[in-house]
Amino acid sequence: xxxxxxxxxxxxxxxxxxxxxxxxxxxxxxxxxxxxxxxxxxxxxxxxxxxxxxxxxxxxxxxxxxxxxxxxxxxxxxxxxxxxxxxxxxxxxxxxxxxxxxxxxxxxxxxxxxxxxxxxxxxxxxxxxxxxxxxxxxxxxxxxxxxxxxxxxxxxxxxxxxxxxxxxxxxxxxx
Length: 175
Description:
By secondary structure, this protein is α+β, with helices and mostly antiparallel strands. The protein has two domains: 3-97, Orthogonal Bundle (Peroxidase, domain 1); 102-174, Glutaredoxin. The chain has eight helices and four strands, in the order H-H-H-H-H-H-E-H-E-E-E-H. It has helices spanning 3-15, 18-30, 38-45, 51-60, 67-78, 85-100, 115-129, 160-174, and strands at residues 102-109, 132-139, 144-149, 154-159. The chain has a four-stranded mixed β-sheet with strand order 2-1-3-4. Strand 3 and strand 4 form a beta hairpin. Helix 2 runs antiparallel to helix 6 and helix 4 (51-60) runs antiparallel to helix 5 (67-78). The longest helix is centred in the middle third of the chain and has 16 residues, at 85-100.
């Protein structure tokens, strides 16, 4: 994250009541997919569209947009920094996780994991790290199981391929 984004996040955190902080962060995170669209980037850089229209459009992407977010959009528009919104949203999400001691992560596997297993993994990790961890199951082509909690800097992986190679190596050394 850029230092500029961190300054905006610090100001947001200081100006928003702690009870609304998670809601504001969630609102900003909800518009991140829109920033992957090149049309939005073109709109943000267009000189023939007024700052007010840009702010109005961005605000319309969030249901029940908070006044603090609208003010943030206005400030960013005034300084031509609307492209910082994704990094501000990500950094704010990280800060909220640290403040509330509540972290989100993923369990990645090549098989479907049922909710009970995911909940059990989350519960065990929560105890180990003395925090609240929510995990979401993701199916991918990863052979094994991997748990990622980015805001804590945790990645735990058990790879079937790695286990096979280590077992083969061990057997060959023992012969």
